[in-house]
Every structure is written in structure tokens, then in C-alpha cells.
Amino acid sequence: MGYHQALLRPKSGKIHGEFLCHLLRHTEVNNHFAKLATGSTRFGLSLESIHKLPLFLPALEEQKRIAEILSAVDEQIESIRIGIQKYQKIEAGLTETLVDEPTLPFSDFVLIRPPLTNKPGNEEDAAFLPMECLSENGEITSFHHRKWSDIKQGFTRSIGWQRRG
Fold it and tell me: Which range is the signal sequence, renumbered to this chain (predicted)?
């Protein structure tokens, strides 16, 4: 094995290999190792600190059942992660298509801070984009529809803010 590597092999009849993999990913085990890690630029663990890891192990058959359940959960999480990535790519592609080659300026379609004389009726929806809907890099994370009658009262009134006084 190379520098900063250790081969761990489960002892037959003592610990189930798949259970060991899940165990080594557990937060408590990682916290234990983090406390014992040494080094200033590249952290490492001594073999002694690995040997002294305190463990409570259930019976071997229970380890197998736990490992099967955790592996099934991991598969579901991975499947969901892949699905999310797929839909994020679809969303990015559609968004790129929408703004790829604009032919008309945005202001041709949307009234931005319209003067009161051009206001829509009181019950029409208007897009509302509060600052918390913008990410740090300026991406829109969500937006809201509000009634024009609420928006014209002012931002603080439309979210129920009351002046103290």
C-alpha cells in the first residue's frame, strides 16, 4: 500500500464486509478519526488509532440485514440523485433555449415598475421577485405570484409587516 493508505480486511465470522463499509461512513466513526488525525497540510491516521476504534457490533446475521437495508437505501438515494441531475439538465437546456437568441427586448413583454396610470386591474396576478429568491450568484431560485392590489400597497404590507409604534 502507498503512503497514507491502509488495507482493511474484515475478519471472517466477526464482521460482515458490507456492514464494515457502512460503519466506516458513519458520522461518529468519522468524528473519532478526525480527532485522532495528525498533520499540518496532509492529515493522516496512525495504524494504532485505527486499531483502537471502539465499536459495538451486533450479531453477524443482524449486521448482514442492516447492511442490506443500508445498501438498498443507498441505491434509492443514488437513483434519486441521478433523476435530479437528469431534470436539472433538462431544465438548463430549456432555460438556455428560452434565452439563447432573444429577438425582442424584455421590456416589450413585461411592465417593469409601471406607472400607476398603466396599472393592471386589482385582481390581476403580477410576478413578484423578492430578494431572497435570488442566489448569491444572481440566479433566480423561485418567484411568487401576487395580486396587484397587494403589491401596490408596498412590499412590507404585502407580506404582513406591521409598523411598531
Answer: none
The domain of 128 spans 106-158
| Pure H helices in 10-165 | 17-24, 27-36, 47-51, 60-99, 148-151, 155-158
Whether 137 is in a domain gets the answer yes
Report pTM.
Answer: 0.51
Q: What is the pLDDT of residues 92-125, one digit of tens each?
A: 887 776 666 656 676 776 666 655 544 455 456 6
pLDDT in tens, 36-66: 888 877 788 888 888 888 888 899 999 999 9
Q: How far is it, in rounded angstroms, from Cα 31 to Cα 40? A: 18
Cα gap 45→37, rounded to integer Å: 5
Angle at 50 between CA 4 and CA 20, to 5 degrees: 100
The residue assigned the cell 447492511 is 67
Cell of residue 6, nine digits? 491502509
The burial class, CB within 10 Å (0-12 / 13-18 / 19+), for 115 is exposed
Same domain, 74 and 111: no
| Number of C-beta neighbours around residue 66 at 10 A | 16
As for how many domains the chain has, the answer is 2
